[in-house]
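Follow-up to my post from last week.
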Amino acid sequence: MTVAIVLLALLGSAWLLAVIEGWMTTGRLSPAAPLYSGLAHLGRESIVPRSPDRVFFEAAPVLLLVVAVLGMAVLPLAPDLIIADLGTGALFINAALAYVLVAVIMAGWGPDGAYAMIGGWRFLGQLIAYSMLIVMPITAVAMRAESLVNTAIVSSQAGLWNIVYQPLGFVLFFIAAMALAFRAPFDLPTAEGDLGGGVDAEYTGVRLAVLRLARLTLVVTLASATTVFYLGGWHGPLFPPWAWSLVKTLAVAVSMLLVGRYLPRIREADLMRWCWILGIPLALVNIIIVGLLILVVP
Amino acid sequence: MSGTQQYLLLLGMALGTVGVVLSLYGLARIMGPAQREPGKDVPASSGVLSRDPVWGRYHARYYGYALLFLAFDMEMAFMYPWAVVYKEVGMVALLDMGVFLAILFLGLLYGWSQGAFRRQ
Amino acid sequence: MSSDLTINSTGARQKRPSLLQKLVSRALARNLSCLIVPGPEVALAHGLDIRAAGLRISTTPRDASVLMIVGDISEKMCDAVAVLYAQMPRPRAILLVGGQTPSTLPGADISSGLSQDQLTEAVGRLERAFADGAFVDSPEEFDSSVLHARIEYVCPMHPEVVEDEPGSCPKCGMDLVAREAGESTPDHEHHHDHEHHRHEHEHYHDQEQQSHHDHEHHHDHQHHHDHKHQHGESDDHSEHEHSGHDHGEHDHSGHDHEEHDHGGHDHGASGFMSMIEVTKDLPRSADGLQMDWLEVPFGPVFPGLPGGLKLTLTLDGDGVTEGQATSLVGMATEGEGSEESQESEGSQESEEMDADTFIEHLASAIPLAPVSYRLLACLAIEQAAGLSDDQATTQARNSALERERIASHLGWLAQSGRQLGFAWLTQRASTLQLKVRDAGRDRIAELEPELRTLGTRLERTPLLKSRLKGIGVLPVDSSDLRGPVARAAEDGGDAWARLWQRLDEIAASLELLKSGEEPELPVLRDIGNASGTGKATVDTPRGEARLSLKLEHGKVKSYKLDTACSHHIDLVPKLVEGQELGDALLAVGSLDLSPWEVIS
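User reply:
Got it. Predicted complex:
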């Protein structure tokens, strides 16, 4: 039952994001667009490149989707609305998200096309940049909650949300999450202007549909993680807990989609440089500040 | 729910997702076969039929960062358990980790001074 | 064009239409995405609003269901169009907007004129065609000669022996082995140069290669076509020239794609690979590592570059070691663009052309700046005919020129937005371009605040400055710079300076329009039956263009055109060398090259 509700919420959010994405690209807000788009993808041929690395090519979209779904499974929508409340939930998220890199590199290597391959390797550089900024802020969150259990992390924010308690961590995590989801302005592996679609370029028909669904789901999962770690999860007045979780998740997800629209794509060299010279020291400062706060403020 | 059950559930979800995707592929198959035509299966490269294989030794220019990344990623493995017990242990924990991190960040500074943070 | 509105049988999918197919067809019809050839910027310059017509713009053939061809397509682009069509997944359709069917394609599914209304109406027909005809019983295969790799025959022992026919080697008598010819670019002349070809092929298929030799050959080859191109020999070249000449050892059987996996990644037959052995003949990068270099085409239909411009980059990882830009849509030669003149190239004694026809010809050959070239032709002809300037006409014409400058720079901004993944900029700039394109003075005055805020917004956009600053810095000794590129050269000469130069020019043009006459398209004044020679210079949006022509009895006897882009395109190799891929593309983009204005 819980599984069904969470998956429905995930799918519903992805649907909503697809509608908003369609609205941004076509200027029309049509709630049925994802349905038509999905059906149209079913109707199109799904081309397999000649002599691809077939395993990589086929596995990439599926792996990306599985990763996003599993990530969502350990995040709570409400105190009892969680599929698997693992003892190491926060770590599990990390482990699952590491496979995004694997999926992207597989998608890049698989078709034996230059654009896709460069896109895949670019993403490896991107991971090296953003990865520490996912991990280190989560550490600070776990310090406050004294636990890696995701429900405990939400409970620890009952009085004060982490976005207020550790705003620096929130900013770093939000940026890193966008880089992880490779949305604009961090869409280096799929850059159209640089790589004509990059790792997405060789997927057509139903495989493309799965890939797009996976990417939207990933955004939802990351938004949900942001909500759980920083926005107090289900906490909020009046409405039932699950509603708060959903509203916060969607707000974060939509802002992730919108931000990219108003920014040019970042240079990979800049991204790596800023992440390492600015981001990681800041993440460390965040850990130290949180560490002191925990000891000073009871 | 016990830990084992939770992981079984997660495994089930992974398999279920794969199953959904496979049934979508099956549905797409009903729509007819993909026509085999010349040129169609060559990776698209903006209007030029580029048949040359691209797999080869790729020059990843971020290897300077990559080496530093390894060090930091290892460090993170220690950070999680530390974070959980931090409040319990108190100030000592901060100093413990502080020493550890200080060494790492010295490494970061050294790498910076040696030009690790640029495209090679 | 089929009258009953179904899709061409080379575009439909094979399946007897059943209920499910009907449902899916309906969805397909509501979800049309089009790949625009030569590019979205041409559609914009013609005043077509693709989104408003109900089509989604796709950037790759893989994601497109409609191949939309705007205007007439040059001979060289026909091959590219065939490749793109072949790589689109079915069901797919061809939409012709104001042009002829390219020779390499089957007939168009839907044709339309070059106006927004006609386009909207055509999209309606297209939707019906998809709804009714996406699935048919017996589709046909689409085939074209460009889609087939040329098979050539090489001797396993003597790689310099390359024959078109099977047989035995003239040197050792061994049977020749078939292999797929490497590059099948639309540039067929490539294939005559066997020596070059062999090298290039080896570059990809054999790990043992002499890339620097390759590239030297490549350049020799380029020099045949393009004498203007200067190739600076860097120190690196000489340093690594020693890599072996012993071609004899290479195993060419691995080149046959039909039977083998790519040779690209299996480095040898033996289980153990020594890294030193594997890499010993690979090209050496700037940091001393030996890597595979790839020659990757960007264009002619690449989302980050103007359509018709083909950039070929040699990539070492994601860095560019060298690059070359060619135009596939440029004006044919000096003289006329017609077939006859191509044969009498150089002599300039081309066929006569009526003065008005000449003006139309020039304006339509350059879709990104038709007004400027119309004006240029009018001025030159009028001067040849000995007409003196007429104050009012000149002012009205100049207003039209300034209006086009604004529109053209907005088009460049939209194109930059596409390149940068900056969706807001693309949308804003193209909306404004469509509004400004044929606006009167009052309308432009109304639009002025919007145009001016564009600059303010860009100034405030985070990341933009760090993205553009220091990119595409021109070499100090660059000569023949014109237009915004030249004017921005004093101000740092990078992509950021060029952006601001163009924004400033938009502002300056607005001022000029305010004080000037109502813009009026240049129309040739009555020249009668005059003869003479004339010369004119117009500062087009991309820089000065000069035209000199000879008029005889009211007909243009011969002409010589000199454009900014013909010179700017030669800057490309130096701009991209050693840059990261994204930076290199941005540097090329910041030049605002119009491939149409490149005279080959």
